[in-house]
Amino acid sequence: MDRTLKRAKRRNKKRIERNTGAWERFCPDGVHCRFCGHDGSKHLLSSGQPHFYRPATEGERRDPTVMLYRHTMPDGGSIPGSESGTWLVRRMTVAARAELITAFCTACAESIGTHQVLCYQRNLAIGEVVGIDTRHKDLAIAA
């Protein structure tokens, strides 16, 4: 899978603030990368909130102001208590601030003669649904 980042064509104040804050929390001293030692100006970053979802309650399903998402099991199998293996899930807030998702070092890339070097990649908590128990046929939502 290609994870190459490109420099933004336009400045976006919110994105810059989000990436700057995530970078400062990511680095031990707030400036230098913990993996390659270069500062933040030599890195291309992407940041965001971790995405966790949980099964929606009955009250949330009836409330039209609540944003719900459809979740289908990856293997296409069905879950007891759901119609055709699809669940209505609600997004959970698990972090107060954005976290670094990827960090590419352009200085390291120049030194070894390639386009980009990946310093860090977070690969957990992207679209994960928690609280659905598929092991028990009589109980679909874990307590």
- Give the topology string: H per helix, E per strand: HEEHEEEHEE
Shape summary:
elongated
User: How many H/I helices?
Assistant: 3
The strand line-up of the biggest sheet is 3-4-2-7
Walk me through the structure.
The protein is α+β, with helices and mostly antiparallel strands and 143 residues long. 18% of the residues lie in helices and 27% in strands. The chain contains 3 helices and 7 strands. It has helices spanning 13-26, 58-62, 106-112, and strands at residues 43-48, 51-55, 69-72, 86-92, 99-105, 117-121, 126-129. The strands form 2 sheets. The protein has a 4-stranded mixed β-sheet with strand order 3-4-2-7, with no helix packed on it. The radius of gyration is 20 Å and the shape is elongated.
In short:
The protein has 143 residues and is α+β, with helices and mostly antiparallel strands. 18% of the residues lie in helices and 27% in strands.
Please tag this protein with its features:
3-stranded antiparallel sheet, 18% helix, alpha+beta, single chain, 3 helices, 143 residues, 4-stranded mixed sheet
Topology (SSEs and partners):
Blueprint: H1 13-26, E1 43-48, E2 51-55, H2 58-62, E3 69-72, E4 86-92, E5 99-105, H3 106-112, E6 117-121, E7 126-129
